[in-house]
Each structure stands twice: as C-alpha cells, then as structure tokens.
Amino acid sequence: MTWEIIFVLVVVFLMMIGLITEFARPDMIVFVALVSFLVTGILTPEEAVAGFSNLGMLTVALLFIIAGAIQQTGLVEQGMTRLLGDVKSERQALFKFILPISGLSAFLNNTPIVVTLTPIIRKWCAEHNLSPSKFLIPLSYASILGGILTLMGTSTNLVIHGLMLDRGMEGYSLFTLLIASLPASILGLIYLVTIGYNILPNHKVLTETIEEKSREYLIEMIVEENYPFLDNPLVDQTVEEAGLRNLDGLYLIAIIRKNEKIYPVKHSTKLKFNDRLIFTGVISKIAELQKKKGLELKTGTNLTLDKLKNGNGQLVEVVVSHQSSLLHKKIKDTQFRAKYDAGVVAVHRNNERINNKIGDIVLKPGDTLLLLAGSDFSERVMQSNDFYVVTQLNDHPLLNKVDTKKAWIAVSTLLAMILLVSFDVISMFKAMSITVLVYLLLKIVSPESAKQNVQFNVLLLIASALGIGTALFKTGAAEIMANHLITVAEPLGMIGILFFLYILTVIFTEVITNNAAAVLMFPIAVEAANRLDVDPMGFVVLITIGASASFLSPIGYQTNLIVYGPGGYKFTDYIKVGLPLSLLVMITTIIMVMTVWI
To answer: Can you tell me where the transmembrane regions are (predicted)?
Structure first.
C-alpha cells in the first residue's frame, strides 16, 4: 500500500469525522480535504478543479433556479391549500397531499417544496385541531420517495449522472431510475398512510408549548414612575447606556410603551417612564434585573407572547439550515436584530429548550428559533438562505394575488423541458439552460432572485466531493475499499454484496450528507462491479437511490431537518418511523436491480 493510498484514506476518514461532529460547515470540511490532496500533489490543479466544471454540478445549479422560480409563482401553495380543503379523516388528508408531493418532487428540487408546504400544513392542522407531527415527517419522506424517481428529482441523481459521463459511462436517461425506484416509492407511500401513520407521534409544536408556559419564558419589568424625573437613572438613557444589552442570561425582546409595542429593541432606543420591558432567557437570573435601580418587577402579569404582537409583527419559527452563515456563531455575534428585524425569544434543540443566555447560544443546523419579528422581517428573510421559515407569514408575497400568466408560463416551460428530455431530443443540461433563459427573458425570475436561489455552498460541497472521488480512483484507494467490501460480502453471494453496498451508502448519507455519500460511494461501486465483471449500471443505480433514501435521522437530509423542529419531533421518532420504510425501500430496490441489471 503506497503512501498516497494511506494519505487519502486517512484524510477521508478525518473528513467524515468532521462531518459527523459538525466541526464546521460541510462544504468547508470537504473543501479542506480537497486542498490537502492538491497541496500534496495527489491531485493536479486540473484534477482538483475539474469538479467545478462537472456537468452534473452545473445542472444542479440550474435546477436550483428552476425550482426557486416555480416556488415563487405561488402555484404550489395555492394548489395544496385547495387540495386539502375540508377532509373527512386525517388519513384521507395524508393521502391527498403525499401523492402530489411525490409527483412534484420527481421533477423539482424537493427542498423548496417542503419549505413552501410546511407552514401551510401546520396552519391547516391548527385550523382542524390536528397535530402537525402526524403530517410533517410524511411530507419529508414523500418528497424523498418522489426525488428518487427521475434524473432531475434530486441533486444527488444529477451529480452521479455527471460522474458517469466523466468516466465514459452512458449516464442516466430521465427515467432510468424509475425502473428500480417506482415499486419502492409506491410501497413507501402505502406504508406512510397505514403502518407509518400509526407509529407517528402526537406532539405539540413549539409555539403551542411556549404559549402554555409563557411565564417560564417571560419577565416583565417596569421603569418606575415614583422617582423624581431626574433621579430615575434609567429614564432617557438608551438601552445600551442602561446596561440592558449584555445581561447575564437575559435578553430584552420588547418594550411596551402605552399602546405602542417596540421590537426588536435597538441598542439606541431610549427608555421612558412606565415603559414595560419584556425579557426572556434564563428566568433564574432575575436577581440581576432586580438589582438595577429604577426597575420594578411586574408581578401577577398575564402577559403572553401572543399579546406582544402588534399589527406589523408576529411570532415566527425558523429552522437553521445546513448552509446558514449563522452556524457555529453566538447569536450575539450575528447582529441578528439588525440583520433580520427580529428578536430571538427562545432556541430549541432536539425538541428541548436551551436554557442558556440567548446571546451566548452557538447555533447548529436544525436549531429551531422562536422569533418576535418586526415589519421588515419578511422582506429580509427572502434574501437569505440562513434558515427555513416554517410559520406562514402574514405579509408573505406568495399570499398576495398570484400572477397567473407568469405562473402558467413557468409551468408550461418546465413541462416542455421534461418532454424534450424524455424523448432524448436534447440533454438535461441543455434543456435546463434553455428553461432558465426563458424564465429570465420573460421576467418570471429576476437575475437577483436567480442568484439567491442558487445554493453556492451546496455547489462547493459537490465540486469538492467530486475531487475527493477522483483521488479515490486515481490512487487505487477505491479499489482497495471495493475489494474489502467484496471479501466481506462475497460468502453471501451477489445479493449480499448489493446489501452491503446499499447499507454502507445509507450509513454515509445519514452522517455526512447525501451528495458527499454518493460521490464517495461511486468509485467503490464502479470498482466493485469491475472486479465482479458485471454491468456497473446496476451498482450505480443502487447507490444513487441509497444516497437519497435518508429516513433514519433529521440531519441526513435537508427536508428531514426542515420538519424536525416544526413537528416537535425527537431524534428517535425518525428511527421508529423511518427504519421500516428504509428496509422496505432497500429490499425492493435490490430486487429490482437484480432483476433488471444483474
């Protein structure tokens, strides 16, 4: 074994540890691994940057723009709202929405679909006195089951397609994956409506829990009036001058002044007599506030978070995304109030409230933040990929009248693209390029919106991971890993090898993200097929589906992460509901691969 192989295996192992422990953002961890191969000469500069011009990676960028444009038309929201309507039973409602969601996810990136529909389903559940936890995991899983049906269903499929073309393989047609995945998707949807529905928990959501326990979250203090005007040390001082900005364990979220409600509170806001100061945080730290001259504790208050809202603001829940610029930073270091016109009321992680000072909480992917949002929040959040908004906003642009003409042009163009690709008239990349051009020329999407829809950190992750895959191939590390896999699984025959290959892919997906898992498993799958002298297509199809079939944890796949906090789920809920589904998809997919390709 050469030093290059040892170095590559060690770096890949350390990279995986970094991804599992969330030491830093995934794209940066994988990029550092790529740079280490470049610096040591294992990869040439041309090989290291080849991933940035990979056809699959570029197609993913176009897919982001198309999916974002369809999302912005509002058709998905309108259609789902009408579809749900009044239903006779929960199961009927569940069936009515998971079927079209799977269909949509087969042709659009499933992340914006789940982001769009999560607040709609939560609002519908609230109106019908139903628990969202019975619907949100099925929303995520149905989108995943739809995504494995076609080439354009997920970014993972397109990345593998690009890798196959780079290796001189034929690549996927639009419906190649459908042959293996359709039976698994059908059985999976049936499972979600029957057995899965029974296993799903009946959790309350964060806002309901907090409304019930408002007194555990809020402290109300009053700027005392019984001082002579000049003697109250707080009056006419700014919040910062009064020492209310960096309290130990407490966070000033609002000021109530007569009939006016001021939030988020700026450091320059001046205090007046009888101002009611509303704090949140570690309630046991109340003694620090009581020591301040000029402040009086308001006892017997019946104030709730809901009563803090004014006509221009609302309580909003958001989920921190994998690509957030807020990751691994303290809230107080992010300039949150100024950036988003919102104050953080509480932070929940793993369905438990973090009882630290809010400003000192270091944010992680999947953290659910309860915000008291101001009038500019909606506009500002639309320009950010830092988190997913899972509450339906009062002034969300998609709640206004939809431009029907533009919406149907967008959908018609997408359908035309699908037909052209289906009949092999043009390639997927050309079809998507033309679609994006039409969207831009007809002003269905603006250049600024197109740029915002592209998740550049995901593209960096994909491009860097492609370089890692090249290093595995070039050094022979992939061949060694494939040989070990075959040695372990060979006594069980071909079906045993396929089981091991699929299980390894799923494990990687659950711990290091789906795109990275797919790229790492691709060279192992190809080398294993070559060693066994069989068509590699079946092996590649298997890992492509396995890389997207993430049902066992909230962190393995973005759509699972989006519904994690809003559904009030625990980590174990994903295992309970997802394990039978994962086994069902695995067994069905392996049977189809064995039947069609091997």
So the answer is: 6-23, 28-44, 56-76, 97-121, 141-160, 172-193, 414-442, 454-473, 493-526, 538-557, 577-597
Please, what is the angle between helix 90-105 and helix 110-127, to 10°? 160
Q: Read off the pLDDT of residues 557-598 as tens digits, 9 standing for 90 and up.
A: 889 988 988 888 888 899 999 999 999 999 999 999 999 998
Angle ∠(524,529,532) on CA atoms, nearest 5: 125
Type and span of the H or E element at 387: strand 387-389
Residue 25 to residue 46: CA distance in whole angstroms: 25
The enclosing H or E element of 297 equals: strand 295-297
Residue 439 near residue 69 (C-beta atoms within 8 A): yes
Q: Using alpha carbons only, give the angle 461, 464, 467 rounded to the nearest 5 degrees.
A: 150
The 8-class DSSP code of residue 330 comes to B
At CB < 8 A and 24+ separation, what contacts does 346-350 make? 346/206, 346/210, 346/217, 346/280, 346/370, 348/206, 348/565, 350/570, 350/571
Q: Per the structure block, which two tokens stand in for 347? A: 């932070």
**From its phi and psi, is residue 247 left (phi > 0), alpha (psi between -120 and 50) or beta?**
beta
Q: How far apart are CA 324 and CA 131, in angstroms?
A: 28
Output the CA angle 176-177-178, nearest 5 degrees: 90
Q: Residue 155 to residues 17, 239, 377, 432, 458: CA-CA distances in angstroms?
A: 23, 47, 30, 13, 9
Whether the CB-CB separation of 257 and 308 falls below 8 Å is answered with no
Strands (E), 125-217: none
Cis peptide, bond prior to residue 183, ω within 30 of zero: no
Query: Is residue 534 within 8 Å of residue 507, measured between CB atoms?
Result: no
Which residues have CB under 8 Å from 423's CB, separation 6+?
Answer: none
Mean model confidence pLDDT for the chain: 84
Task: Give the type of residue at 61.
Answer: A
Tokens of 537: 């297509």
Q: What is the pLDDT of residues 379-412, one digit of tens each?
A: 788 767 788 888 877 655 444 456 778 888 988 9
Task: Tell me how far CA of residue 556 lies from CA of 19, 80, 253, 284, 525, in angstroms.
Answer: 11, 26, 33, 36, 21
Most confident of 215-229, 341-355, 372-386, 458-472: 458-472
User: CA nearest 373: which of 317, 315, 304?
Assistant: 315
HSE (CB half, 13 Å, CA atoms) of 99?
A: 10
Q: Which pairing describes strands 387-389 and 295-297: parallel, antiparallel, or unpaired?
A: unpaired
